[in-house]
């Protein structure tokens, strides 16, 4: 068993060698050389030096700016007449490509402002009519100022499928990734600046603003990789100055974001950072054209050194032993910055060319922008959700307590209102005893005292019946209060109808009761009166009917209770008695019954009217039910 495992491991280990073995019949590059261009005279006849692509020519000719020719000699091999393709990862800053003597491609502008092809991969099918049976040559003329790392990217020659596949990978690595990064940076910048504008006075709100500015500064720097023209800048050097200033701003904002997000208070360090940022931006803008390359390199390296120093110090801040209480988000940010440090160390020891270093930093920063967006949004969202949940629970508890307190207060208020109503009714009962039964007793006593002879049995019986009726009214008046709302208007009016119908029948006065059969809705919906309103309406109708019995000499009585609208309850008491002068009685102020009914109507918020003339007296109450 172990022997089989060993053989399988050996086969897997040997497989890449088989897969990567070069095809002996495939086209292959024989030599790559470079030489300084001598003005516009054409290809140089001498000065050729062997080079390895990708290449930045300022390493070979530090102060040379303008143009360099590259010569790539290759042979077709034994593949016969199969199509041959050429792929180039980029020409810095602009250029043109020839196959033998045939022009394959040329940038739109080979003079300032130059086109920008340094990060744009391209590929072509080489025209078969222009190829030789033996050795062929690809000529590339690259144009660019010495300050912007001019040179030629990787070159590949082979069958069309292989070159197209490599081109797709280069296009993803050199273009698509940066477009995605640019979109993410634009979204992050706009989003976090908006959040900062809304929360700039909140604790930690400054971190949002600096992160938004950091994302926008990196977006500006990413145009170095995406732009294919120098617009809106007049030449390549001006765009290079802008890119360096954007990089300096990015580093400054990244450091300040780190301080704010981590809760670090370093005022002296921040002042030094502002000074270094001003110095770096000034050096990038004011660098003389002849020495722009070294100045640009110093600014770029200084900015990266400051950024790496910030990444390293935040590791100590987030992971130190005394920082056990640090938030998890601080350590996640520290891990993001640690990736920068590791990539920087890898680039330092592997000595990559300038193009690859720049591309590594740009791609890495884009990924870290995504990580930071996820970190900030995820962390803040989780915190906000927890706060909202806690607030919701507290709010629910508060609402429950408020409802309980409100219910208790409402019950207490209702009890007080009923007690107050009962107290008022007791006072009214005392008043009725004094003015009603008391007056009848006084009249009876006076009649007996003044009579010259004993009263007949019929007359005595009549006096006793009058006293009995007055006492019954007083008793009924004081015992009809209830705290519950009747289920129907008929149930509410039934006690009144029972008591007063008997009295009216004894007086041989017919009565008519027109009562609505149902309430139009519940108490909460405003479709029926409250218990207090029912009590006050009962007393008011009792007073109106008592006045009819005492004073009206009526031959017919009609009581009507109806709901013409869902929110309205109307009561109407009508008789055909002798009537009275309503205005005169109101001006005299001696009618206790009128004052009592008006006071009760006012307490329940109803409209009370009395209309009277000989043969018709109408007492009307219109109650607007609470909505």
Key phrases:
627 residues, six-stranded antiparallel β-sheet, five-stranded mixed β-sheet, 13 helices, 17 strands, 57% helix, rod-shaped, disordered N terminus
Task: Describe the structure concisely.
The chain has 627 residues and is of the alpha+beta class.
Walkthrough of the structure:
The protein has 627 residues and is of the alpha+beta class. Helices cover 57% and strands 15% of the residues. The protein has helices at residues 2-20, 160-199, 205-226, 236-262, 267-286, 292-319, 328-350, 354-450, 457-479, 489-506, 531-552, 582-588, 592-604; strands spanning 28-36, 49-50, 55-56, 66-75, 85-88, 91-92, 94-99, 102-106, 122-125, 135-144, 151-152, 155-158, 511-515, 557-562, 568-575, 606-613, 616-624. The strands form four sheets. It has a six-stranded antiparallel beta sheet with strand order 2-1-4-10-7-8, with no helix packed on it. Strands 13-14-15-17-16 form a five-stranded mixed beta sheet, with helices on one face. Helix 2 (160-199) runs antiparallel to helix 3 (205-226). The longest helix has 97 residues, at 354-450. It is rod-shaped and about 165 Å long. The model is unreliable at 1-21 (pLDDT under 50).
């Amino acid at each position: 068993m172990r022997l089989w495992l060993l053989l399988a491991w050996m086969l897997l280990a040997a497989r890449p060698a088989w897969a990567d073995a070069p095809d002996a019949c495939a086209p292959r590059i024989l030599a790559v050389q470079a030489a300084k261009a001598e003005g516009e005279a054409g290809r140089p006849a001498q000065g050729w030096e062997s080079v390895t692509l990708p290449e930045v020519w300022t390493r070979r000719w530090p102060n040379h700016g303008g143009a360099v020719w590259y010569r790539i000699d290759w042979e077709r091999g034994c593949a016969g007449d199969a199509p041959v393709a050429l792929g180039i990862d980029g020409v810095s800053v602009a250029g043109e490509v020839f196959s033998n003597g045939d022009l394959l491609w040329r940038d739109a502008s080979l003079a300032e402002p130059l086109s920008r092809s340094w990060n744009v991969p391209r590929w072509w099918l080489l025209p078969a009519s222009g190829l030789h049976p033996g050795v062929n040559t690809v000529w590339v003329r690259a144009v660019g100022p010495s300050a912007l790392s001019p040179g030629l990217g990787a070159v590949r020659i082979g069958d069309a499928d292989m070159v197209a596949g490599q081109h797709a990978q280069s296009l993803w690595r050199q273009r698509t990734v940066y477009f995605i990064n640019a979109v993410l940076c634009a979204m992050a910048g706009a989003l976090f600046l908006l959040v900062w504008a809304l929360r700039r006075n909140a604790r930690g709100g400054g971190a949002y603003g600096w992160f938004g500015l950091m994302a926008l500064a990196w977006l500006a720097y990413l145009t170095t990789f995406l732009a294919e023209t120098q617009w809106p800048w007049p030449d390549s050097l001006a765009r290079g100055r802008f890119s360096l200033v954007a990089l300096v701003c990015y580093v400054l904002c990244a450091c300040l974001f780190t301080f704010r997000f981590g809760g670090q208070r370093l005022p002296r360090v921040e002042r030094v950072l502002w000074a270094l940022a001003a110095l770096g931006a000034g050096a990038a803008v004011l660098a003389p054209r002849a020495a722009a390359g070294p100045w640009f390199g110093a600014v770029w390296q200084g900015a990266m050194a400051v950024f790496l120093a910030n990444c390293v110090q935040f590791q100590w801040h987030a992971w130190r032993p005394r920082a056990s209480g640090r938030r998890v988000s601080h350590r996640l940010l520290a891990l993001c910055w640690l990736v920068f440090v590791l990539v920087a160390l890898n680039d330092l020891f592997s000595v990559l060319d300038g193009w690859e270093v720049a591309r590594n930093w740009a791609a890495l920063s884009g990924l870290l922008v995504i990580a930071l967006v996820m970190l900030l949004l995820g962390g803040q969202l989780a915190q906000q959700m927890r706060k909202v949940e806690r607030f919701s629970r507290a709010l629910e508890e508060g609402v429950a307590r408020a409802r309980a307190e409100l219910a208790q207060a409402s019950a207490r208020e209702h009890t007080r209102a009923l007690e107050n109503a009962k107290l008022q009714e007791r006072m009214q009962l005392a008043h009725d005893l004094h003015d009603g039964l008391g007056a009848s007793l006084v009249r009876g006593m006076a009649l007996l005292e003044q009579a010259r002879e004993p009263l007949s049995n019929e007359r005595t019986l009549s006096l006793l019946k009058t006293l009995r009726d007055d006492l019954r009214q007083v008793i009924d008046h004081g015992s009809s209060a209830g705290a519950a709302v009747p289920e129907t208007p008929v149930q509410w009016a039934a006690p009144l109808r029972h008591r007063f119908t008997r009295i009216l029948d004894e007086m041989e006065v017919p009565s008519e009761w027109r009562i609505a059969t149902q309430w139009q809705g519940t108490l909460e919906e405003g479709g029926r009166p409250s218990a207090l309103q029912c009590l006050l309406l009962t007393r008011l109708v009792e007073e109106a009917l008592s006045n009819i019995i005492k004073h009206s000499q009526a031959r017919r009585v009609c009581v009507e209770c109806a709901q013409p609208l869902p929110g309205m309850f109307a009561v109407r008491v009508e008789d055909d008695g002798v009537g009275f002068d309503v205005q005169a009685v109101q001006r005299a102020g001696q009618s206790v019954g009128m004052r009592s009914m008006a006071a009760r109507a006012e307490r329940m918020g109803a409209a009370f009217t009395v209309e009277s003339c000989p043969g018709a007296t109408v007492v009307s109450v219109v109650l607007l039910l609470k909505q």
